[in-house]
Amino acid sequence: MRRVARPLAWLVLLLAAAWLMPVLEPLFGALAPDRGTVIYPRASFLSLLGEHLAIVGVAATMAIVIGVGAAIVVTRPAGSEFLPLVSQLASIGQTFPPVAVLALSVPALGYGPSAVVVALVLYGLLPIVRNTLAGLKAVDRGVVESARGIGLSPGQVLWQVELPIAAPAILGGIRTSVTINIATAAIGSTIGANTLGDPIISGIVNNNIAFTLQGAVLIGLLAVTVDSAFSRLG
User: Fold this and answer.
1) How many secondary structure helices (H) and strands (E) does the chain include?
2) Can you tell me the distance from the alpha carbon of 38 to that of 209, in angstroms, rounded to the nearest whole number?
3) For the whole model, what pTM was predicted?
4) Where in or outside the cell is it found (predicted)?
5) Which residue ranges make up each domain of the chain?
6) How many CB atoms lie within 10 A of CB 210?
7) Each residue of 54-81: b (16+ CB within 10 Å) or e?
């Protein structure tokens, strides 16, 4: 019960903050007394939260499938020669600025969430690939040979022995990737995607610290909620 209590508490706090943000208008009014509107008006915070989560969720799913799949392939004898290439490509994906990826994706994918998903997938691959490789390489070869000795096929060894043993390391990489992308997804608002970055961008453009703080607080709460959930899962 205690394992789920903390993530649930953060989730309740996140939803309450998104739902009750207008109630805090007097507080934000004190922060920006020269502004007539201090609560972001263009969309509800709950809808922005939902769309932000959807973008991050799609990107995370794709990054997990690609990252874990690539790491598995290059740790098999048939794909071992591609190990350096996969590691380098994953590293390049994270060092390449997400804003630059957005700029290159927009002409092909147009404005909106699709370009953001591409940027987040590239940005989130490195932790997943790196941790999956580390986890699979750390599996005791004696355990693998014992599994083969009792008649398990290579596929059974992978799914019943290697991946379960490597799971904590893999989960750690996914946790890092998703947490980073929760914050990174905010830049999607610059190309028309509806995210919790909307009030932040609007606040910067209009010099309204209240808008910026509202988006930042919700993104922070979302990141802590998800990280807490991964911590309990681990």
Assistant:
1) 11, 0
2) 9
3) 0.90
4) Cell membrane
5) 44-233
6) 23
7) ebbebbbebbbebbbebbbebbeeeeee
- For the domain made up of 44-233, the CATH class stated in words is mainly alpha
Task: Judge whether 219 and 186 are in contact, CB under 8 Å.
Answer: yes
Q: For residues 50 and 189, give the distance between their C-alpha atoms in angstroms, rounded to a whole number.
A: 14
The rounded distance, in Å, linking the Cα atoms of 3 and 88 is: 37
pLDDT tens digits, the chain, 234 residues: what are they?
566 678 889 999 999 999 999 888 888 888 777 777 889 998 999 999 999 999 999 999 999 999 999 999 998 888 888 888 888 877 776 677 777 777 778 777 878 889 899 989 988 888 999 999 999 989 988 888 898 888 888 888 999 999 999 999 999 999 999 999 999 999 889 888 899 999 999 999 988 899 999 999 999 999 999 999 988 886
Question: Which tokens is 105 given?
Answer: 């994706």
